[in-house]
Structure formats: C-alpha cells, structure tokens
Amino acid sequence: MTNGGCILNSGSAAWAFEPLAHELSKALDVPISEKPHRHNYVLAYENLSEIPSSFIPLRALEITADKRKIAEVFTTNAVPAPKTLLLDSPTAVLTHARDSGGEWCLKFPTSCGGAGHMLVTQHSTIPDMWPRPYILQEFIRMTDPRVYRTYIAGSSLFGWVTRKFPPGAKPAHGSRTHAAPSTNSKHRPRPKLPRPLQAHSLLSA
C-alpha cells in the first residue's frame, strides 16, 4: 500500500478515528490523507463513490456508515440483536416508547461512539434535524458493560478481544476501556457470528 496508498480519514466522523489513523500510519509507514489515493485503507470518508479501491470492501463501509442499513442487513440475515425498529415519525417513536415497556434508545444513524444517542420516553423531544427514518433500539442495561470485537484478514476470522471498563470505573461516553484477549471458551464468538460478517462481505461463505 505504500506505493500510491494512504490511510483515508476525513469528514464529520474523522475525529473518532484520528488516534487509530496515526497508529496505522506509523505501523504501516503509510501517509494519512483527506483525499483518496490509488489504494486506500478507509477509516472515514463522506462520498464512498469517489474511492477507486479500498482494503475494506466498499459495500461493508456503506452499510456500517449508517445504523439503519445495519438494522436492515441484520434483520435480513437473522443476526441476533436487540429489537430494532425503523419508524417514520416522532409520534411513532414516542408512542412505541410509551406502549412497549422497557427502555428504548433513539440512535443517531451516522454518528460514532454513541454520540448523539438518547434514551426516549413518551415525554421526550426529538430534534427536528434528526435523520429519518428514525432508528429506535431496545436498550439493554448491563451491570458490567463489555464489547466483543472481532478481527478479520483475507476473509478469515483470526481473533477477537473483549473490551470492558477497568474495575471501579464509571461508564460514560468517551471513557477509556481496556482490551483483554478472549481465550476463555465462554467469551468465544457464538456460532451465528459469521452471519453479520458474510452480510458485510467480510467473511467467505
């Protein structure tokens, strides 16, 4: 990738990937760029159609850039996930929050790191600028929040880690987590894990 290649990171979401961009640039000896090169490791970019080639499949980038598309792909491929709805109006969002019970999160569809998300009740006010359709997802409260992150190369799943808060830390947006290799069998990916990876063209069928 060093010959005509770059770490592509620009646009409204670039701030979330800036530390990773510098780490990759240093490790791979590849420059960071705000404009596409011949070969691109894409972290963030507004117009994917302008990218001539990408290390990560462009279809996967297109899906993961919008949580509404993720919801559609997960539903089509029967990927286990919290209950997720695409709704057309603020009234539908607030009515569902009132009538369904439990807790519900209105997710900003193109944000990173949980930015812009809000827990909704029947009394919530949804800003007029919120993109439609609205994506409303069941909020599952966890006493010990953690994320399982998978790693893929050459269409093969080769590893994963568990990300969680250090003991005693109070979870908050932007808080630092630490990663631990998931060697314990109870932390291994579930058998249904290939479904979202195949749907994003990241894993061979």
Descriptive key words:
alpha+beta; 205 residues; 10 strands; 24% helix; four-stranded antiparallel β-sheet
Q: What can you see in these coordinates?
A:
The protein is an alpha+beta fold. The chain has five helices and ten strands, in the order βαββααβαββββββα. Strands 4-7-5-6 form a four-stranded antiparallel sheet, sandwiched between helices. The longest helix has 15 residues, at 14-28.
- State the separation between the terminal residues, measured CA to CA: 27 Å
Which blocks of ≥5 consecutive residues have pLDDT under 50? 172-191
Order of helices and strands: EHEEHHEHEEEEEEH
What value does the Rg take, in angstroms? 19 Å
* Class from secondary-structure proportions: alpha+beta
Mean pLDDT figure: 81
Number of strands: 10
Strand order of the largest sheet: 4-7-5-6
Describe the main β-sheet briefly.
4 strands, antiparallel
Strand content: 15-25%
Shape: globular
Quaternary structure of the protein: single chain
Q: Treating each run of at least 4 consecutive H or I residues as one helix, how many helices?
A: 5
- Helix proportion: 10-25%
